[in-house]
């Protein structure tokens, strides 16, 4: 096995029954501890392996993306460099050089070039079936690279382990990964034809070549989520509630009866299609970009992606240019075209210090959102004056970071700067105490580290289409979405909304521009705010049982701030097309709504949500400027221009109806 990062400083050796531990350390960049004594004790007690995890090696927070690095000498004097970030390290040198524990040849070649001081590695075009070492969480993992380019133009990387990430960049800076097509040896979803439809069930015959067992424990760590498609293989409209699968029965080989309490089932027809993702355990993601700065992913295509396809965590100014998620060809033994391209979001960014830039990307056929950018919401556990303790995970904030505090109705109570960080209690998924500038706002129930919320993101000239979920799900400050295309999406085209008690993602948006985008046939399922373009705040209010109470609009106008919705075009969309709630200083200008509210089918409407016969919905807002908008050839379900609640501004005067 190889060490990916720079060589370690030689320390005094410890003898382990003929094996000498020259050095052994654990942790993240800038925060490491010596674990030689620990290894010595384990060997001395006769243990055969050591778990590579924080509970075993440190039992406390050591930063994000922790690694084990070791240099050993065996009884023959041969040196072994070992890098591991997961699994169990055998304490027997005879196993270290075996194929079972070795990294794949491609990773070794790339890392050898980097260690020689080269600035660029060009992968020879071809098809590569990549394996994974059990000591590494991904098939290709690059840690702490700087100023380096991996050019894989003309290459197809086939990932062979469904329980492992495909590609990881960790703690890298100014690294470019370009040109590769990434896919899977085994489909990460399955699909079939609808053979029978009942009031509360559907029978599906799985297509040849696709995974045949809907009850396979190795591939599903929870009940599969079904989506339905018409004979044109587009997302089936009016199927809200498709996720409410209650039980699955096997009727025969590849034939299953799925019990689901979905009111939309009565619109499903025999001969249409169903598809579902394989929810493999051990975490999702095909490509992970973790704690990286100014990295570039360019001209990369992913087919048959595992989970959330590209997952960015704790990013700092990374760019994704012409990154594509699309359908794979039919699998071996199959002839039916794929209904899905991947298991979940095409692009998922959490807690970025500087938000990502997406340019010219195409996202097609996912089983969830196109883009999801957010910070994380944490529950407050204790407040004493200027100190707050809350649940927290992994990457610590920095001094000077801005913290947002929210009340029992999810209203923004105040913003504070971090003056002191007390991480003595903090291990992964534990609690963190901060001292802030000024007293913590009284009544605070949740917090967000707003400085780690993807602020400054930019999405330009991208396409997202033919998928469930939302087109873009956005939060944070100083973002822009322009010249993008949204089509055949079964929920909102763009949703800007925190999720306090469900996904724990936020905060509210500030200084957001959404302009010159095109929406076609979106918001097919009437969900939440029910709008094609929604800047909203519909939340459960029951902290103890979020799923047990109704969703309500946050009754304050000071949540989202400084929002511009300008120059957007909507074509043949149903439900409210534009919805803004709990916001102040909003501009709705020069938008064109073509044939809105035209389709006849029964909606599933949450109580209190936007009415489905109205083009625009505004609630709990102030200082809304509405001008220069047009409604062209409204559909037969169109009843009125706008429905307003708790809002004094005249929205209707800003729209002209052209019949």
Structure description:
The chain is mostly beta strands and 659 residues long. Among the domains are: 14-95, no CATH class; 189-277, Thrombin, subunit H; 376-452, Thrombin, subunit H (Beta Barrel). The protein contains three helices and 57 strands. It has a 13-stranded parallel sheet, with no helix packed on it. 48% of the residues are buried. Mean pLDDT is 87; it is low at 1-16.
Mean pLDDT: 87
Classify the fold: give the CATH topology of the domain at 189-277.
Thrombin, subunit H
Sheet with the most strands: spatial strand order = 9-12-15-24-27-30-38-42-46-51-53-55-57
Number of strands: 57
Question: What's the arrangement of secondary structure elements?
Answer:
Elements: E1 14-16, E2 19-28, E3 31-34, H1 36-44, E4 49-51, H2 54-57, E5 67-73, E6 79-84, E7 88-90, H3 105-115, E8 120-122, E9 126-130, E10 138-143, E11 146-151, E12 155-159, E13 165-170, E14 173-178, E15 181-184, E16 189-197, E17 201-206, E18 226-229, E19 245-252, E20 255-260, E21 273-277, E22 287-290, E23 296-298, E24 301-303, E25 310-313, E26 319-321, E27 324-326, E28 347-350, E29 357-359, E30 362-364, E31 371-384, E32 387-392, E33 402-406, E34 412-422, E35 430-436, E36 446-449, E37 458-460, E38 463-467, E39 472-474, E40 476-477, E41 480-482, E42 485-489, E43 494-496, E44 505-506, E45 509-515, E46 518-520, E47 531-535, E48 538-540, E49 551-553, E50 560-566, E51 569-571, E52 576-589, E53 592-594, E54 614-627, E55 629-632, E56 640-645, E57 655-658
Parallel strand pairs: 8-11, 9-12, 10-13, 11-14, 12-15, 13-22, 14-23, 15-24, 22-25, 23-26, 24-27, 25-28, 26-29, 27-30, 28-31, 29-37, 30-38, 31-39, 37-41, 38-42, 39-43, 40-45, 41-45, 42-46, 43-47, 45-50, 46-51, 47-52, 50-52, 51-53, 52-54, 53-55, 54-56, 55-57
Antiparallel strand pairs: 1-2, 2-3, 2-5, 4-7, 5-6, 16-17, 16-21, 17-20, 18-21, 19-20, 31-32, 31-36, 31-44, 32-35, 33-34, 33-36, 34-35, 48-49
């Amino acid at each position: 096995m190889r060490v990916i990062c720079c060589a370690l400083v030689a320390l005094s050796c410890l003898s382990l029954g003929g094996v000498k531990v020259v050095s052994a350390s654990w942790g993240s960049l800038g925060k490491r501890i010596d674990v030689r004594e620990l290894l010595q004790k384990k060997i001395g007690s006769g243990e055969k392996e050591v778990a590579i995890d924080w509970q075993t090696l440190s039992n406390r927070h050591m930063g994000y993306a922790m690694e084990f690095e070791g240099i050993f000498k065996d009884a023959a004097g041969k040196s072994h460099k070992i890098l591991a970030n997961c699994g169990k390290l055998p304490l027997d040198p005879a196993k270290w050089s075996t194929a079972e524990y070795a990294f794949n040849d491609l990773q070794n070649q790339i890392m050898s070039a980097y260690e020689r001081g080269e600035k660029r590695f060009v992968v020879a075009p071809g098809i590569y079936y990549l394996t994974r070492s059990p000591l590494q969480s991904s098939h290709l993992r690059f840690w702490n690279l700087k100023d380096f380019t991996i050019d894989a133009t003309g290459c197809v990387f086939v990932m062979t382990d469904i329980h492992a990430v495909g590609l990881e960049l960790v703690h890298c800076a100014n690294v470019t990964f370009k040109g590769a097509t990434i896919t899977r040896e085994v489909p990460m979803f399955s699909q079939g034809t609808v053979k029978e439809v009942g009031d509360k069930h559907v029978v599906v015959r799985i297509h040849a070549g696709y995974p045949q067992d809907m009850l396979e424990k190795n591939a599903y760590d929870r009940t599969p989520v079904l989506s339905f498609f018409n004979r044109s293989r587009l997302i089936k409209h009016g199927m809200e509630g498709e996720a409410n699968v209650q039980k699955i029965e096997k009727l025969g080989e590849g034939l299953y009866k799925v019990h689901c309490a979905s009111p939309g089932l009565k619109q499903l027809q025999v001969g249409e299609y169903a598809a579902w993702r394989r929810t493999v355990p051990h975490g999702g993601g095909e490509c992970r970009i973790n704690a990286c700065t100014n990295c570039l992913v360019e001209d990369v295509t992913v087919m048959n992606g595992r989970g959330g396809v590209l997952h960015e965590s704790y990013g700092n100014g990374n760019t994704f240019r012409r990154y594509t998620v699309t359908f794979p060809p039919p699998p071996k033994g199959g002839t039916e075209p794929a209904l899905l391209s991947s298991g979940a979001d095409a692009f998922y960014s959490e807690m970025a210090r500087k938000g990502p830039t997406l340019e010219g990307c195409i996202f097609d056929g996912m089983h969830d959102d196109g883009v999801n950018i957010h910070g994380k919401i944490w529950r407050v556990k204790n407040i004493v004056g200027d100190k707050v303790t809350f649940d927290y995970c992994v990457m610590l904030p920095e001094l000077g970071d801005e913290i947002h505090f929210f009340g029992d109705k999810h209203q923004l109570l105040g913003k504070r700067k971090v003056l002191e960080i007390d991480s003595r209690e903090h291990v992964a998924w534990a609690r963190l105490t901060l001292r802030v500038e000024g007293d913590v706002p009284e009544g605070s129930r949740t917090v967000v580290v707003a400085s780690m919320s993807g602020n400054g993101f930019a999405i330009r000239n991208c396409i997202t289409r033919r998928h469930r979920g939302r087109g873009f799900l956005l939060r944070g400050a100083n973002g822009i979405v322009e010249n993008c295309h949204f089509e055949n999406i079964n929920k909102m085209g763009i949703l800007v909304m925190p999720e306090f008690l469900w996904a724990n993602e936020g905060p509210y948006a500030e200084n957001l521009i959404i302009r010159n985008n095109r929406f076609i046939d979106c918001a097919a399922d009437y969900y939440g705010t029910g709008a094609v373009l929604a800047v909203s705040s519909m939340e459960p209010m029951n902290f103890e049982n979020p799923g047990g109470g109704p969703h309500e609009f946050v009754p304050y106008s000071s949540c989202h701030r400084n929002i511009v919705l300008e120059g957007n075009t909507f074509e043949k969309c149903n439900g409210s097309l534009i919805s803004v709630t709990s916001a102040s200083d909003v501009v709705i200008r020069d938008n064109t709504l073509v044939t809105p509210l035209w389709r006849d089918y029964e909606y599933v409407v949450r109580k209190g949500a936007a009415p489905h016969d109205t083009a625009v919905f505004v609630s709990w807002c102030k200082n809304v400027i509405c001008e220069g908008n047009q409604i062209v050839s409204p559909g037969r379900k169109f009843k009125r221009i706008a429905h307003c609640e708790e809002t004094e501004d005249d929205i209707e005067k800003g729209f002209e109806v052209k019949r």
